[in-house]
Amino acid sequence: MTSEDEDADKASEVRAQVGAIAKAEARASYERRTEVSIDVPPDVTRAKSQAFLDAISPITHSLGLAGDYLEDLRERLRMGRGATLGVVAAKTRDQIEHQQKPPGEVPIKAMLPILERASLEEPDDEVLTSAWATLIATAATDYDPEVISFSRILAELTPRECQILQHIFQGRFKWVDGKRPVGPMTKFFESEDEIKSKLRKAVQAGDSKIFSELLTYVDPEMPIQFIAAITRGVSVRANWIDKLLKEPFYTEHEGGYEILKAQGLVEHRGQSYSWRDGETPVAVDWFELSELGCRFVARVIPRANSSEAGDGAAAEEA
Predict the structure, then answer these.
(1) Burial profile 8-24: b = 16 or more Cβ within 10 angstroms, e = fewer
(2) Rounded CA gap, 109 and 146, in Å?
(3) How far, in Å, CA of 48 to CA of 119, rounded?
(4) Tell me: the pLDDT tens digits for 91-113?
(5) Which of 76, 85, 100, 145 is deepest in the core (most CB within 10 A)?
(6) From CA 170, how far away is CA 287, in angstroms rounded?
């Protein structure tokens, strides 16, 4: 055997030893990671986990929580997400207890993404934790696969967008449940001359009370918010916006309205009025809930608050 062959054999032995050491270290590392992943968390973490599971147990029975899901949930609790899940679970249980229907099982395809997305909220966020609790409660008592899509939409909203939805909705559950009056905007469209005059005066005076006054021309059961009124300048060939008056709440949260529009939850509509020679043209814009938006708010806004919200709407209109 030549010296070159001996060197090659030694190199092979070294590589084999290095490979064996690497495999041993990898195996040890894997075993250490596995050991950590199945460690029982501290008592306080275990208590939070059990409290959460107890709170939603009637609607998660089919998930096989005694196995992998429980381990995954404990990992989430280690990362500080247990507080939010605890808040959501308590609210969910409270809502279910006040409903006439007993809860049923929610399919794992729906329940897991809902819990995952809900756990990302801040535990002290009253608006969003209540919305997630309502979504879970309605999924348990009246399941429809739409809750999967609604969980995705809700995960992309902030308290601002939820506040806007509530501002437009004002607890009008009859509308979202399909109990709608015929021709809810008939009076609005039949009062053109009267409304034109009021719009013109309001825009010129900068009087934002016109937006609540316009609601008196719409059936009180319809979720709608008037947001802008304009006057136009005209010439032989064109017309343009001369003055613009925006509703104060809309002005403060305008970006949120566009997000809700992009999600398909609200629709932006408007009415431009005809004018005679010598008149100043006027127009008005509003937002209303889309059909998707109606189904969404019925799933995420607690019904326990509907009467209070409805009273607020009536007070505004008065």
Answers:
(1) eeeeeeeeeeeeeeeee
(2) 12
(3) 13
(4) 998 888 888 788 888 888 998 89
(5) 85
(6) 13
Both tokens of residue 110? 């729906």
Of 172, 185, 164, 162, residue with least CA distance to 227: 164
In angstroms, the CA 225 to CA 288 distance is: 6
Q: Residues 20-78: pLDDT tens digits?
A: 444 444 444 433 333 322 233 344 344 444 445 555 555 555 444 444 555 565 565 55
The Cα–Cα gap between 274 and 296 comes to 36
47 CB-near residues (< 8 Å, 6+ apart):
none
* CB 116 within 8 Å of CB 155: no
What is the model's pTM? 0.72
Q: Which residue carries 């995705």 as its tokens?
A: 152
Rg from Cα positions in the chain: 30
**Domain definitions of the chain by residue range:** 43-156, 186-317
Q: How far is residue 122's CA from residue 85's CA, in Å, rounded to a whole number?
A: 10
Strand order of the sheet with strand 239-246?
A: 239-246, 224-234, 282-289, 266-272
> What token pair was written down for 112?
């897991």
> CA triplet 91, 95, 100: central angle to 5 degrees?
165
Q: Where are the alpha helices (DSSP H) in 125-269?
A: 126-141, 146-155, 159-169, 173-176, 186-190, 192-205, 210-214, 248-252, 254-262
Q: Report CA-CA distances (Å) from 76 to 50, 125, 199, 251, 274.
A: 13, 19, 55, 39, 60
**77: CB partners within 8 A, 6+ apart:** 41, 45, 48, 49, 85
CB 135, CB 151: distance < 8 Å: yes
CA atoms within 13 A on the CB side of 160: 13
